[in-house]
Amino acid sequence: MTTAPPRFTEALVDFDTRLFREKFDREPFLIQHRLPGHPLFELERIMELTRSLPADRVEYNAGDVPITLDPKVTPRTGLSAEETIRRIEECRSWLVLKNVESDPEYSALLRDCLSPMQSIIPDMHYFEAFVFVSSPGSITPFHIDPECNFLLQVRGSKFVRMYPRDNAAILTEQELERFYAGASRNLTCRDEEGTTSRLFELLPGQGLHFPVTMPHWVKNGPEVSVSFSVTFRTSASDRREILYRINHHLRRTGLAPRPVGQSPWIDQMKFTSFDTIRRVRRLLGSKPEPDRRGY
Ligand SMILES: [Fe+2]
């Protein structure tokens, strides 16, 4: 039997459409892109972006940290964000600029990166973009994120260790419930050897898909790394978030809720009840709850 060659879109990002449809939000997979050398990722331009963002949209920490890290004890370096970027080669740090779509140039780039996917995922919404700058060998600890994410490697390399999200020995229902209720994204890694994981090496021009809440940790390669994360939500990711928040609430009242995904009928009943309450609250003029943001 012959296999048809993969079909690629003609755009800033390239991907095998068949593979994309098969794996999106189920499994990690690689795509290609044309961002290496793009002027928006020169360090001088990133420093300019840093100066323009509100302080709470700029996070930077020591990158010489363990895989399991309590965010309350995350070590700081004593450097400013700009100094961190200027000295990124030797300061052993990790910096993220959040919601860079507030800058029109990065917003246009986010749109250009995601537009080829829109025909496959018509319910994409709530678009956000993040720029990561990291020192050689720095570590981003074990964590989960609430968005559908494509991490596009622009400069240097990264090793990403990705764990299954449906293995309770790695990620429990209670951890997911607490996360969606507002707890930290960082979690305890119970398999640092990675026996249950898949390892991806990301090189410039490659991008990796992170399904929603798929646990992972990242180690930088031997050079400075710059990457661009383009993210969005879908109806399925919104529904998943609501179901976990309902279960969190039920557990706090002393009940043992049925895990999300175990009974489609019960999930639908919970979702419909929540949706009805939300509609009634809207009619009564209550403020909507804030969206959960992560990276
Ligand atoms: Fe992440």
Question: How would you describe this structure to a colleague?
Answer:
The protein is of the alpha+beta class. The chain folds into two domains: 13-234, Cupin (Jelly Rolls, Sandwich); 237-283. It contains seven helices and twelve strands. It has helices at 17-23, 43-52, 81-86, 104-114, 173-180, 235-252, 264-283; strands at 13-14, 30-33, 58-62, 93-97, 125-134, 139-143, 148-155, 158-162, 198-202, 206-210, 216-220, 225-233. An eight-stranded antiparallel β-sheet has the order 1-2-10-7-12-5-4-3. Strands 6-11-8-9 form a four-stranded antiparallel β-sheet, with no helix packed on it. The structure holds fe (ii) ion. Fe (ii) ion (FE2) is lined by residues 143, 145, 216. Fe (ii) ion binds at residues 143, 145, 216.
Short note summarizing the structure:
Helix content is 27%, strand content 23%. The protein is α+β, with helices and mostly antiparallel strands.
